Please model this.
Amino acid sequence: MQPNNLTALDFEDIKDSIKSYLRTRTEFSDYDFEGSALSYLVDTLAYNTYYTSFNANMALNEAFLPSASVRDNIVKVAKLLNYTPRSVICSKACLNLKVQTQAVNGFYPSSATLPRGPVATGGNYIWNVLDDVTAEVNPSTGIAEFDNLEIYEGSLIEYSYIVNTFAKQKYIINSEDADISTLSVRVKPNETSTNSDLYSKVDNITNLEATTRVYFISETDDMRYQIRFGDDSIGRSVKDGEVVVLRYMVTAGKSANGTQTFAFVGTVRDSNETSYSPSVVNVTVKSKAVLGDDAEPVESIKYYAPRYYSAQYRAVTAQDYEVITKNIYSNAAAVVAFGGDSLNPPVYGKVYLVVKTKTGSNLNDQTKKSLSSQLRSYGMASIEVVVTDPDNIYINPKIFVNYDTGCGSNTSQIKSDISAAILDWGTQSKINNFNASFSTQQFERAIELSNKCITDVTTQITILKYIQPNTNQTNTYCISTGSPIYNSAPSQDGSDGDCKKEPVILSGPFRTADRPGIDQYFEDDGYGNLRTFYNTGNRKVYTNNAAGTVNYSTGEICFGPINIIGAGGQNPADADISVTDSTTGAGSVVNIDNLPTGLSIPVQIIPSNSSVIPATTPGTIINVISPEIAVSPIGTQFPSAIPLNSLTPSVFNVVPELLDVPDIDNSGSVNTSACFT
Model:
């Protein structure tokens, strides 16, 4: 008789299966297994079967990407999909260096050069430039300016291999913490040669010829990377005696992010071969250290490898555009793509790509054009790629909590537990990202469960949006909440002309070309109109009762036409304006060239239904502001859930601190400008 249970994996089940099989034999039909020495043999067989089954099950799991758990196995499966996991990434900062050069015979040198290698210290790290950087010297002042100088944290390593084809050589980057995005591969004809050929990294072999100087890279064991060359059919092969030179950064990754104080330690050499010490170099930090990251985690590899493979070096679906963008643009924390046909009204023949950057800044025009150009080579000829900025909605929650004073927790502990619970809720709900929505019920539930002493919770929810006006241009600016806006008195329609409603929309301060000497604000009148005003003492003086429109049903707010010249405390200097009436701020602009730019007006809005706040468009990111938390003993009266008369948008003249929710990311490179935007 054959064994009757071949699927048992538990030790006791296996043992019972062996006993059942033995009892089918006449010799053991009434045998007492538990009281005999044979039980030890049965146990041994069961143990052996158990471990064999376990190992077989684990081995089979490791052969498939979704079930694998060991990184080396995950990387091997991803390699079959032509996916190379991202390495650790250097943190990089942006500096401006000014060097006062010395004149020789009354003439300053023509240029100055900063050699590759260490140039600065900062935050207990060494910072480098990857290649020699040359700047022209101003012939009048003798100053050489290195502007937008990108410096990388880590150690610049150079490692060489002498090619020996007989030994079936492998070209391994031996450093575990190597940033392969900084990798430079050169091949010299021999050891004594000073000339070398630069090889380019490729993933796609379709356009390669036998003489093309390229290399391929893949992750090998222990998070190290291996370089491979062509075979004289697909790419040029390296020959015996040639020297392969690998140059790369070994880095601490994201731990160096945030460094913002640097001291110059490099050497500058001018065209007259004069060297300058650090004491004559003036250092200005243009951007603190950002973009450093750890090696790609296994969860990210599992997610992106099959999607990258499905794209097949072409962009057809929206997901294709998202995956390819994440792979070619290193500053992308999150990406969403959608067809213009999904808009209202629809726009055909266009794909809209929205990028949330790791640095938090919007992409500049040059980077948008560069990214769009690169994506065009993947997409169909008839499709235009439009790269846009995210539409940010900020949720501003105020939390009010009652607690049992006899429970054992104090207010500090409760606040700490609430903050931790909110962060955990944000991670689970993927808030601060695309395709998210805000649920007040889930938010409050997370707060209630954060500490056993909490007896009751209520919240005040407002929405924050920003208007970003163009300086000294008469425009109308429209923003949308994506959901209805609260009506403070729905029974009043304004037909009698005397009824007033409480405003549910309030802006931060701004200044206009006709009133450059005073801060103005706008609010709604409850009947679909915006009106501007300024404060004098405790009184509002309205300057325009038809300054824009509000659609309470759709959440669309249009402000203007209006000419903004200052906002959020960024106001023109007194010398650039003429104020004719100090009380009303009336006057005019004298010098338009010196007006502030990059203006931002915060607008705070009370939603009609705070239970669920959806995204406005596919490119909307719902951000949650780190909340204010008020903890009171049980029995304390809560304030109204609708915060009428308590809107404070001026607090948000500077973008507020947000919940720090981690993103799954991928990375690559694209030419950027102006320090990582």
User: Anything to note?
Assistant: The two ends are 74 Å apart (CA to CA). The chain has six domains: 11-61, 92-154+254-290, 156-250, 298-390, 392-464+610-652, 469-599.
